[in-house]
Amino acid sequence: MTDEGVIKRIPTGINGFDHVALGGLPTGRSTLVAGTTGTGKTLFSIEFLARGIQRFDESGVFVNFEEKPEDVRRNAASLGFPIEQWERDGKWTFVDAAADANEEAPIVGAYDFGGLAARIEHAIRESGAKRVSLDSLGSIFSRFPDPSQVRLELHRIAATLARIEVTSILTAERTSEYDGVSRHNVEEFVLDNVIILRNILANERRRRTLEVVKFRGTAHRTGEWLFTIDPHDGIVVMPLAFLTPLAPASHERVSSGNAGLDNMCGGGVFKDAIVLLTGPSGSGKTLTTLGFTAAGIAAGERCLIYALDESRAQLGRNASGWGHDLDAMEASGQLRVICDYPEVASLEDHFLRIRRAIEDFRPSRLVIDTLSALERVVSPRALLDFVISLGVVVRHHQVTTLLTSAPSGRFTPQLTPAIAAEIASLTDVTINLRYVETAGEIQRAIAVLQTRGSTHDPSIRQVTVDADGLHIGTRLSSIVGILSDTPTISGSGPPPDGPQQDE
Q1: Cβ–Cβ under 8 Å, residues 411 and 280
Q2: What is the 3-state secondary structure (H, E, C) of 395-445?
Q3: With left for phi above 0 and alpha for psi between -120 and 50, is residue 264 left, alpha or beta?
Q4: The CA-based dihedral angle spanning residues 416, 306, 391, 259, taken in that order and rounded to the nearest 10 degrees
Q5: Contact (CB, 8 A) for 380 and 359
Q6: In a designed cystine with 291, which of 107, 154, 257, 402 is the match (CB 3.0 to 4.6 A)?
Q7: Which residues are CB-neighbours of 42 under 8 A, at least 6 positions away?
Q8: Which of 438, 448, 503, 421 is nearest to 476 (CA)?
Q9: Is the dihedral of CA 45, 50, 56, 62 positive or negative?
Q10: Which residues contact 486 (CB under 8 A, 6 or more apart)?
Q11: Closest of 62, 126, 53 to residue 91, by C-alpha
Q12: CA 348/CA 232 separation, integer angstroms
């Protein structure tokens, strides 16, 4: 194919979207952005123009059918878009069609699209605009009960915009998330490109997704992509917004805070490693995270703890029981603790909060305790996207990261979150803690399942917990099947090293 045959792209500048669109929207064409109420259609159309002005110095024309210009200015200002200033600079032009759309229309078909097209063309030529947004066509098309007339008028608008050679977005309503593309079932056939925004209710929680349904004559990524609307960054498509060239791998090793665990991992973990620690409640996960944090503080590093399902007061009290003074660590400026319940925010908001804390605080170590809590509010696929996005951020900033997860049953070996196996494939080190019943006694055991790029101790070792913390002891050579549902004793094993204590 020659260069002349290649459809050029215009980057939208919307976080992550251009990765989905493989470079942006097809230049000089119209794109339908359809969605139900609250999906972010208007924001998409505003941000398309705003990012064009901010990042590419391209003027835009906004045709408003529903919201008045003052409402659009006020809403956009909350995202940091100074539309009023851009209007004075000749970068942003409104074509106010709201009054026309709201007029009573006793005679169907009385609306003059020809007049509107002339106004839009005049605004484009006057401002030299490269981008146009029309929001939303539904208020006008609702006056035409005949779909054929909707199709005719929409074709007229698209033809006008194509003739002027501007790239445009036209928003339209849908009545349901997965039944048809548009309300009149004709819009998607007239326009070259179709994007659907969804706001899906699942497990009593809503999540937004974006899907490019078609880009006529050119490629795009397929499937639904999770996105959020952030007060600072606007629309953020995850995880693609955070995919960057791979950061160089670190050869430096850091301590986990437990000498025995360091030995099992081949001498500590790499500085940019992501460690997944799984284990049932009380097996030693939180104690391990505290030791990991304390080791970082002792080394003069900054540490960030993102705790779910535990208040700051509870975490501080529990830490003090093991000799860790979180208050003093925070007072030194080396530790930041964020405690929250998963239910108070969406998964995307949790992620953005962590990302901002990393960018602002610049920690060398991050603890998220636990991933399993987040599974209560999101789907497994969304949680996987969360881990992918998080991985990109922490590797870019060379943050040693410790993630914990817990099985659903205290004595069952099944991994949770449900996609823990997939998550494990994204991490560098996987460690499993679990309980083992031996001769009328419950013991703890630990195994390092993988350390990517390094040798490790393949032994399953006994774990004891006492007033001095968590200790890794001898190899449990007498127990077999420890990673299965039914471990058995094959012979007499070594006795416990001493009294144990619950975490």
Answers
A1: yes
A2: HHCCCEEEEEECCCCCCCCCCCCCCHHHHHHHCCEEEEEEEEEECCEEEEE
A3: alpha
A4: -80
A5: no
A6: 257
A7: 67, 72, 75, 135, 136, 171
A8: 438
A9: positive
A10: none
A11: 53
A12: 13
First-to-last CA distance in the chain?
Answer: 65
What are 231-262's pLDDT values in tens digits? 888 998 876 555 665 667 788 999 999 999 99
Residue 93: what pLDDT?
96
* Interval 213-230 mean pLDDT: 87
What per-residue confidence (pLDDT) applies to 375? 80
Give CA torsion, residues 200, 342, 285, 480, to 10 deg: -30
- Residues 44-87: pLDDT tens digits? 999 999 999 999 999 999 999 888 999 999 999 988 999 999 99
Q: How far apart are CA 473 and CA 346, in angstroms?
A: 41
For residue 242, the tally of other CB atoms under 10 A from its CB is: 20
Q: Left if phi > 0, otherwise alpha if psi is -120 to 50, otherwise beta: which for 99?
A: alpha
Which residue type occupies 199? N
Residues 399, 265: Cα–Cα separation, whole Å: 18
Smallest CA-to-CA distance from 209 within 195, 230, 192 is with 195
Q: What tens digit of pLDDT does each residue of 304-324 get?
A: 999 998 889 999 998 998 889
pLDDT band at 373 (very low <50, low <70, confident <90, very high): confident
Strands 167-173 and 205-215, bridge-based pairing: unpaired
Question: How much is the average pLDDT of 106-135?
Answer: 81
**Which residues lie below 8 Å from residue 85, measured CB to CB, with a gap of 6+?**
none
- Which amino acid makes up residue 125? R
Comparing C-alpha atoms, which of 324, 374, 340, 331 is closest to residue 503? 324
Q: Are 475 and 461 a contacting pair, CB within 8 Å?
A: yes
Cβ neighbours of residue 48 closer than 8 Å, sequence gap 6 or more: 12, 13, 14, 25, 60, 131, 133, 169
Tokens of 98: 């709201």
Longest dimension (CA), the chain: 93
Residue 60 neighbours by CB distance under 10 Å: 29
Placement of tokens 């937004």 in the chain: 208
Determine the Cα–Cα distance for residues 288 and 302; give it in Å rounded to an integer: 17
Q: Which residues pair with 405 in a beta bridge?
A: 278
